[in-house]
Amino acid sequence: MMPTDGRRGKRVAELLRAHLADLMRREVDDPRLAAVVVTTVEVTDDLMSARIGVRLLVGDEDPKKRARVLKGLGSGAARLRRLIAPKLELRRSPELRFHYDDGHDASRRVEQILDEIKRENPNDSDEARK
């Protein structure tokens, strides 16, 4: 097998993200997945596996909703893989593995902490700018 420089994997990941988002919007009848957004797709160098990050548009604070969404995606992964295979034009479609993308939650928490620090020490931020 020839080594890859990652560009093909990135192209496949972007194609996979776009087609998955479209399929989930048009083809999936599961009500648990109505408000799911595909945020990230990472494909291994051998294109055999894809790690897909998802979020909820509404109610993403509820861990039970997150778990239901991941369960729904897990049970529908084989169907999604079959539907997306012809669009990717690969010999073998990657195995789809879904996870909840909590990166937005972490950045939101950092912003909250910075806002708290500014409120506690308003004079420190004015002096730092001088």
Number of strands: 3
Profile the largest sheet.
3 strands, mixed
**Second rung of CATH, namely the architecture:** 2-Layer Sandwich
What is the terminal-to-terminal distance?
58 Å
Strand order of the largest sheet: 1-2-3
What value does the Rg take, in angstroms? 19 Å
> Helicity level, as a percent range?
55-70%
Global outline: globular
Based on secondary structure, the structural category is: alpha+beta
Could you say what the CATH topology is called?
GMP Synthetase, Chain A, domain 3
Number of helices: 4
Instruction: Please mark out the parts with pLDDT under 50 across 5 or more consecutive residues, or reply none.
Output: none
In CATH, what is the homologous superfamily? K homology (KH) domain
Note the beta-strand portion.
Answer: 15-25%
Mean pLDDT, all residues: 82
SSE string: HEEHEHH
What's the CATH class, please? Alpha Beta
Oligomer: single chain
**How many distinct domains?**
1
